[in-house]
Design a protein that fits this description.
Distance between the termini: 13 Å
CATH class: Alpha Beta
Structural class: alpha+beta
Helix content: 25-40%
Low-confidence stretches: none
Shape: globular
CATH topology: Heat Shock Protein 90
CATH superfamily: Histidine kinase-like ATPase, C-terminal domain
Number of domains: 1
Radius of gyration: 14 Å
Order of helices and strands: EHHEEHEE
Number of helices: 3
Strand order of the largest sheet: 1-2-3-5-4
Length: 134
């Protein structure tokens, strides 16, 4: 698979989560994913983008940057918000299974091969990775 990457921004409004997820789905298809792997990527990216919009955007007109593509034999998506961030080492492990929220990062980790979270200086960065040719 040839390496590629594409970057775009959305305004941090909940109505923009679906179009961002759809655009990343197109990148994943271009990388060769289909079926359950494609669905897993779409769900994980939806969670990451929604978190960036709801929790990582200091204002309604803040930008969320999304970059995805193929690099070193893997498909990746990076979602960067402009918020204060959080320490991913202090995530709640005892989240209520019936709660409406609190499962997004756990879900991302279950669906992707690797999830890296860090504060990038000017916002939180979530990098989701799924290996090609599994």
């Amino acid at each position: 698979m040839n390496e590629f990457q594409e970057k775009f921004e959305i305004i941090a409004h909940p109505s923009n989560a679906g179009p961002a997820r759809d655009r990343v789905r197109g990148l994943a298809e271009r990388a060769g994913f289909s079926g359950m792997d494609l669905a897993d990527i779409e769900i994980a990216v939806g969670e990451a983008v929604t978190n960036a919009i709801l929790y990582g955007s200091p204002a309604v007109d803040s930008a969320v940057t999304v970059m995805g593509g193929v690099d070193s034999g893997a498909f990746f998506v990076e979602i960067r918000d402009r918020g204060n961030g959080f320490d991913p080492h202090h995530l709640r492990q005892d989240a209520d299974q019936d709660a409406l929220g609190g499962r997004g990062i756990r879900l991302m980790r279950a669906l992707m091969d690797q999830v890296d979270l860090h504060h990038g200086g000017d916002g939180m960065v979530a990098r989701l990775t799924k290996r090609l040719g599994r």
